[in-house]
Amino acid sequence: MYGLHPVDDAKRVFRAALTNQFARLAPRLYTRLIGRKGRGSEESAEQTAARFQENFDEYFEQLQVAPDRIGAYLTGKRVIEYGPGGLPGVALLMVAHGADRVTSVNRAPLVFGSEKNIQVLRCLMDRLEGKAQARAASCFRVYGDPASGFSRHRIRYLVRRHGLSGQLDAADLIVSRAVLEHAEHLSAIFADMRLAMRPGAVAVHQVDLGSYGLHRRNPLDFLTWPAHLWSRMYRHRGMPNRWRIDRYRRHAEENELKTLLLRPTGLAGPHHVEEVRSHLAAEFQSISDEDLSWLGFWLVCLKA
Question: 43-214+242-303 sits in which CATH class?
Fold first, then answer.
């Protein structure tokens, strides 16, 4: 915890600041190096495909759309996915089940050409049947051949520095998973989302408010670092922005998005909150104990 171990704190700041500068000066190289040992790098193609399917299914669980109604729900819809990572597997499933087109917005270029990624896409298609499989096959420049790349008529992959779509009245459904907690300008993401949503459109977001391994012994102790030090250590490394649930709730309200569901996915214990309360950085001191305890959540909101 910041302030209780000054020598360890100083070492951590020094190491993290150097890595942060490396990420700033050579972002592509940093992304490649991190990607090689990042989450999911040891998965088989089949396991990765199964994870994409699980993520897809969870979106519709939050929307309370039964599996046998997903096709009817998606038919003709246009979808925006924030932060698909190197491979828009969920986008492929959206089109396969009826979506007209998916726009995937990422801050980094598409990592497409690896043999494993092509195998993942083939595994996803093998899991499908009939019309769904045919629609998935139509997502590629050469019908049914993932190695040919995505057809822009089905899946567009936009690279934007700040992860903003820049779209206007373009989406009936917006989704993201473990993305918003990395947004440098969270207010801009919500404003972009409001502009991109058509009237009646719905957004579904799963947000991880955890430390991404940057806490010590208390899941909230990473909130004790002052903002200026946190920025020097992690701003360019894709680490969490640390904003808590109160900030997300406020941005949804400011953008006139009606909250249909706001449900925590994990909570810190009261003793964790009590332990860090007196050490919190200035921007977190006024947050209620209840809001401070949220470690993640699902958000479903509507543009009325």
Answer: alpha beta
Amino acid at site 256 = E
Q: Is 39's pLDDT higher than 50?
A: no
Per-residue pLDDT reduced to its tens digit, 203-233: 999 999 999 999 989 999 999 999 999 999 9
H or E, element range at 116: helix 115-126
In our burial notation (b when 16+ CB lie closer than 10 A, e otherwise), range 143-181 reads eeebeebbbeebbbbeeeeebbbebeebbbbbbbbbbbb
Contacts of 160 (CB under 8 A, 6+ apart): 105, 106, 107, 166
Residue 4 banded pLDDT, cuts 50, 70, 90: confident
> Which residue, 35, 16, 48, 18, is CA-closest to 121?
48
Give the integer Cα–Cα distance in Å for 30 and 133: 36
Q: Tokens 């009936």 label which residue?
A: 172
Residue 240 C-alpha from the chain's centroid: 11
Alpha-carbon span 299 to 304, nearest angstrom = 16
Residue 205 host element (H or E): strand 197-208
Which are the contacts of 250, defined by CB distance < 8 A and separation ≥ 6? Answer: none
- Length of the chain equals 304
Q: Which residues contact 50 (CB under 8 A, 6 or more apart)?
A: none
In whole angstroms, what is the distance from residue 288 CA to residue 230 CA? Answer: 22
DSSP state of 107: S
pTM of the model: 0.92
Three-state SS for 142? Answer: coil
Q: Per-domain residue ranges for the chain?
A: 43-214+242-303
Q: Are 299 and 255 in contact (CB under 8 A)?
A: no
Report the 10 Å Cβ neighbour count for 265.
14
Does 146 score more than 90 pLDDT? yes
Query: Could you give the 3-state DSSP secondary structure of residue 281?
Result: coil
